[in-house]
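User: Can you recover a sequence for this backbone? Please restate the input before giving your answer.

Assistant: Of course. Working from this structure:
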């Protein structure tokens, strides 16, 4: 597709298993198209493809519901591996996906301790722990609902609670924070 509007029309027509959207498209940006597509196809796997190695673009894309953010500098072979891995819900380790999401900790000021004291992990209900484990496996809401025998609305309620308790803006950040606090492996 030549622009965001055409991309949406083609995706509605073809309903692919995996979508690669360019962040920077004429007419309607990739993030704008992503938001629209997420409402139409909440469980579709959507990856953002970009030349921008910038955390703001990554955060915007992930916050809009992207399942991943890939740099265009990726080789075709690696791109195929990433797409297949994400589609099959396998854990994908790639510098084109993960290095962008990790921000180095700020350097301590003179006289401050080198590592700040760790914040206590939030108290979670048993169901929130179950949802968090499913999320860490890469399950989408529909899969979590099926796996835990919960309604989609109940899953969404637990997700909102987890986002609030961990002060996370998206799923990836939530899982990263939970792992850092040793709540999931």
């Amino acid at each position: 597709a030549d622009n965001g509007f055409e991309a949406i029309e083609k995706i509605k027509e073809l309903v692919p298993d995996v979508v690669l959207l360019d962040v920077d498209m004429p007419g309607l940006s990739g993030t704008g198209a992503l938001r629209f597509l997420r409402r139409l196809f909440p469980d579709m796997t959507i990856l953002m493809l970009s030349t921008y190695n910038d955390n703001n673009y990554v955060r915007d894309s992930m916050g809009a519901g992207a399942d991943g953010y890939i740099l265009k500098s990726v080789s075709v072979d690696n791109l195929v591996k990433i797409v297949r891995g994400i589609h099959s819900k396998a854990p994908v380790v790639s510098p084109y996906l993960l290095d962008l999401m990790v921000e180095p900790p700020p350097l301590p000021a003179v006289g401050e301790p080198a590592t700040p004291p760790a914040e206590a992990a939030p108290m979670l209900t048993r169901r929130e722990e179950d949802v968090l484990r499913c999320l860490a496996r890469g399950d989408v809401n529909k899969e979590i609902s099926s796996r835990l025998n919960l309604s989609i609305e109940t899953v969404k309620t637990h997700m909102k609670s987890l986002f609030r308790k961990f002060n996370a803006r998206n799923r990836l950040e939530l899982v990263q924070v939970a792992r850092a606090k040793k709540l999931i492996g």
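That completes the design. The longest strand covers residues 45-50.
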